[in-house]
Amino acid sequence: MSFEDLNLHPLIIKAIQESGYTAPTPIQKQAIPELISGADIIASAQTGTGKTAAFMLPALHHLAEPPKIRSRGPRVLVLTPTRELAEQVSNAAKKYGKFLPRTKVISILGGMPYPLQNKMLSQSVDILVATPGRLIDHIQRGRIDFSRLQMLILDEADRMLDMGFIADVEQIASATPKDKQTVMFSATLDGGIEKIATRLLRSPKRIQIASQKARLDNIEQRLHYVDDLSHKNKLLDHVLQDTTLKQAIVFTATKRDADLLADNLYARGHTAAALHGDMNQRERNRTLTRLRKGGLRVLVATDVAARGIDVSDITHVINFDLPKFAEDYVHRIGRTGRAGASGIAVSFASNKDGIHLKRIERYTGQPIASHTVPGLEPRFKPNQRSNGFKKSATPAQQKRKRTQSAFGKPQGFNANFARPSRPARASLSKGGFERR
Fold first, then answer.
1. What are the chain's domains?
2. How far apart (Å, rounded) are the C-alpha atoms in residues 261 and 435?
3. Tens of pLDDT along 61-70?
4. Global pTM?
5. 3-state class of 158 per DSSP?
6. Contact (Cβ atoms closer than 8 angstroms) between residue 35 and residue 59
7. How far is CA 112 from CA 67, 136, 181, 282, 285, in A?
8. For residues 110 and 125, what is the distance between their CA atoms, to the nearest angstrom?
């Protein structure tokens, strides 16, 4: 199937061809015809599957027709959970709609100055891409007219649910026309998303693309067990010395850790910078521009960067700290292996991370193979029975175990009153391993 077979407007086809795309992805094949027909849809598709084009191409197709209502307000509204994703969607709209006459795309995001946004909203706009919180500010001030809105798109609805934006999303939806077309994209279609879809969508068509396992086949996943922060930093240095590494994103658990680690890497000679939610929009844009232009080899980020960054030269993703949720692991490592390329995802796990590893492997349906680096082997090994860590047995302990196996249980053993296991070894966080 080609894009021409999807009956898109010829000027949109021209932009697609100029971008170098020849065939639609599975999500595009299924979603575009439904959206052109005017149906509401709820779709499950992960980052890297072409979902942005799946909703933006039919949105632009509708914009090729003149509006029925005269107004300066938007005809298409896209809500995203993060500023980075909003910028990505805006850029896609401009790229695919470049040959359509008078198609105005603007972004309304937190961190941008209000006077600039007020000026943009005072002019006619076709596609408005926004984060929920800032958009509600403008709605409450009466600066947006939704009278001619034709399509409402909720991108990464599951993330907006996780971030507590759903009440804002529903408030925004209530301010829009009832006869609009509503589109919801989500990584998962769990109970929470289903309830939201029931409230916001009208008899939606359902589309589900790819399994977790299929999506990760082009990403090599590696696991390194770590003893403490010093051990973790040495392993990170080893990974960053890989000559095949073009660009990498290193994920940390906190914004403070991102700043500290980026400063440490820069001091050690790496072209590194941090990206997190406490930075203003100008700083974030400047950092992402450096990354896209190749001026950064290492980006140290919190989960704010797990969605919305599409840079083809990212060959490695490094989980310096494992994420709290298995879904975030998939979104993190999805920053590499884009558009059919291969990638490498490296994760560091401490003695506290056994349960997180188990959840990640259950969610993806794939075990993560553990690796060791000569000279940097961990002192502690994983205990598969408890998903914790235990110290390797000494030769004497191994001999005693072999003797018990050969001659049976020790004298006086009572199966009903087995000797309790020894207390777990004290946490390795002593000495500042956890820098929260």
1. 3-210 (3.40.50.300), 213-383 (3.40.50.300)
2. 11
3. 999 988 888 8
4. 0.64
5. helix
6. yes
7. 29, 14, 29, 8, 11
8. 19
